[in-house]
Amino acid sequence: VAALAATAMLFASLASAYLVRRSFPDWTAPAPAPWPFVLLACGTWASIGIEAACRSEGRPRHRGLINLGAASLFYLGGATTVIVSIASGEGRLAAPHQAFVVLLLGVHVVHAILGGSFSLLSLRASVSDHGLSLVRLVTHSLTALLFAIFFLLFVLR
After folding, report:
1. Which residues are CB-neighbours of 105 under 8 A, at least 6 positions away?
2. CA pair distance 50, 64, nearest whole angstrom
3. Fewer CB within 10 Å of terminal CB in the chain, N or C?
4. Long-range contacts of 65-69, Cβ-Cβ distance < 8 Å, separation of 24 or more
């Protein structure tokens, strides 16, 4: 819980820096792209997977955990691809919005890796209701943070 609170505070500081920076005259609006929706779908898929695992027993629980793992891997692969594409593409990080996309998404990826590692360790120790509750908290927190990043970067104008 303390780590999630620290993550939320880090996001709040980056969000405030983003809101101040976008008021500068060199700020340009991003071109629409499909990748934010793909990453949001992966985050939602992960949350649905952990909910299915928490609300069931036996095979359905196992399938929920497999969906959580698959969604997490697809998210990490997709987010890493987006970061590398922006950082190595035309203009690279010269556009302030692109730099913030890479920064916020990169920080989220690091937290997703740490949260996923914590979740995996919790589940390897025991697939108990307590372990699943911790994984549920981490998964839903990271998914909510991803939705907040999406809102901040692509909805708020």
Report:
1. 39, 79, 82, 83, 149
2. 6
3. C
4. 65/123, 65/127, 68/119, 68/135, 68/139
pLDDT of res. 14: 87
CA torsion through residues 110, 111, 114, 115, sign = negative
- Confirm if 91 and 98 have CB atoms less than 8 A apart: yes
- The helix-helix angle for 129-150 and 35-54 (nearest 10°) equals 160
102 and 87 in contact (C-beta within 8 Å)? yes
Query: 132 near 54, Cβ under 8 Å?
Result: yes
Residue with the larger pLDDT of the pair 157 and 16: 16
Whole-prediction pTM value? 0.83
Angle between helices 2-21 and 96-125 (to 10 degrees): 170
